[in-house]
Amino acid sequence: MKNGLILNTKILILGSTGQIGKSIKKKINGNVICPSKKKLNLRNINQLKRYLDKYKFSLIINCAALTNVNECEKQKKKAFLLNTEVPDILSKYCKKNRSHLIHFSTNYVFDGKKKFKSYSEINKPSPINYYGKTKYFGEKKIIKSDCNYIILRVAGVYSKNSKNNFFYKLLNNRNKKIYIVDDEFISPCSANFVSDVTLKLIKNITLVKKKILHLTPNGSGTWFYYAKYLTKLLNRKKIIYPIKSDNFNKNNAKRPKNSIINSNKIQKILKVKFYNVKRYIYDEYKPNVIE
Ligand SMILES: NC(=O)c1ccc[n+]([C@@H]2O[C@H](COP(=O)([O-])OP(=O)(O)OC[C@H]3O[C@@H](n4cnc5c(N)ncnc54)[C@H](OP(=O)(O)O)[C@@H]3O)[C@@H](O)[C@H]2O)c1
Predict the structure, then answer these.
(1) Which atom of ligand 1 is the closest one to the Cα of 81?
(2) pLDDT at residue 2 above 90?
(3) What distance in angstroms lies between residue 164's CA and the mean position of ligand 1's atoms?
(4) Which of 75, 122, 182, 286 is most open to solvent, judged by the fewest CB atoms within 10 Å of its CB?
C-alpha cells in the first residue's frame, strides 16, 4: 500500500498537464493513467465514454476544466461541455462502476456579497459569472449521480511551473507600473498545497464519501496584497498600484468581491492545521532559503 492506495488500483487523472493535475501526477503512486488532450479530447463526449468503458478505473481525479474566466463568457458551449457535461459523465460512470471521483471546483460558485465573513460548505452558491455557473452545475450533476465523490473547491491556484496563473503574469510583466485589483478578497492556493492535501484525502478515501470540501490555506487578502508580498520577497523592483475592480478592464467577466472560502471542515477531518497563504507563497517561490 502506497499513499493508502492498493497498488493495482487503476487511477485516471484528467487534466494532468494543468497546474493541479501535474502536481498530483508527480506525487501519486500506483497504476496511474494520464491521457493527454491529444489522446483524449474531453470535448469529444463519445470518445470519453468509449475511453472510460474500455478501462475499469477505481478512482478518477478530474483536474480538467476550462479555467479561463473571461474565455468562459465568450466560449459558453465549450465551458459548459468541460465544466458541466464532463463531470456529469464521469460521475455517472463512477456510480455505475462503484468507483471514486475526486473533482475540483471553485470559490467562484459564490456571489461574493457576504460581508466580513468567509464562505463555508453550508452556504448556498449563487455564481455571478459563466465560469462559476458551469462549475456549480458540474457540482450539481455529480451530487445527483450519487456516486462516491469528493468535490474540492479551491481558489486562485498558482504554481511556479505554470504560466497560467496570476503570479507568473505578475513576475513576467515588463511594464514599469502595474495596476492590481485591491477590492476582491481571496485565499489563493499553491498547486503543491492542493496536491498534498488531495493525496492525504486519497489515503482516507473510504472515510470521506459524498462531500463538498473547501480547500484553501488559512488567511486571505487581495491580489494586490499578495503581489506586494511576493515582489518584496523576491526583491523585484516593480511599482504596483492598487486599483478598484470597476476601473480595471470593463470587458472582463464579473468576479466576486469576497470569494474567501474557509477550510475548517477539511482540516478537522484530516486532523491537520494548514498554514497561512503567505507561507505557501514563500515555499513555492523561495524554498530552502534560511533568512
Ligand atoms: N486556476 C485557478 O485559479 C482555479 C481556481 C479555482 C478552481 N480551480 C479549479 O481547479 C481545477 C484545476 O485547475 P488548474 O488551475 O490546475 O487548471 P489548468 O492549469 O487550467 O489546467 C486545466 C487542464 O484541463 C485540460 N483540458 C482543458 N481542455 C481540455 C480538453 N478539451 N480535453 C482534455 N483536457 C483538457 C488542460 O489540458 P491542456 O493543457 O492540454 O489544455 C489542463 O491539463 C479546475 O477544476 C478548476 O476549475 C482553478
Answers:
(1) 31
(2) no
(3) 9
(4) 122
Instruction: Point out the ligand 1 atom lying closest to the alpha carbon of residue 15.
Output: 43
Task: Identify the residue whose C-alpha is closest to ligand 1 atom 17.
Answer: 18
CB 48 within 8 A of CB 40: yes
CB 15 within 8 A of CB 65: yes
- CA neighbor of 286 nearest in space, from 165, 200, 109, 167: 167
Distance 235 CA to ligand 1 centre (A): 31
Domain ranges of the chain: 10-159+188-217
Return the DSSP state at 276: B
Compute, in angstroms, the gap from residue 57 CA to the centroid of ligand 1: 21
- For the CA of 43, the closest atom of ligand 1 is 31
Gap between the Cα atoms of 211 and 102, Å rounded:
10
CA 38 / ligand 1 centre spacing (Å): 15
Distance from C-alpha of 142 to C-alpha of 138, rounded to nearest angstrom: 6
- The pTM of this model reads 0.96
Q: Which helix (H) or strand (E) holds 201?
A: helix 191-203
Q: Which CATH class is domain 10-159+188-217?
A: alpha beta
According to the model, what pLDDT value does residue 249 have? 76
End-to-end CA distance of the chain: 39
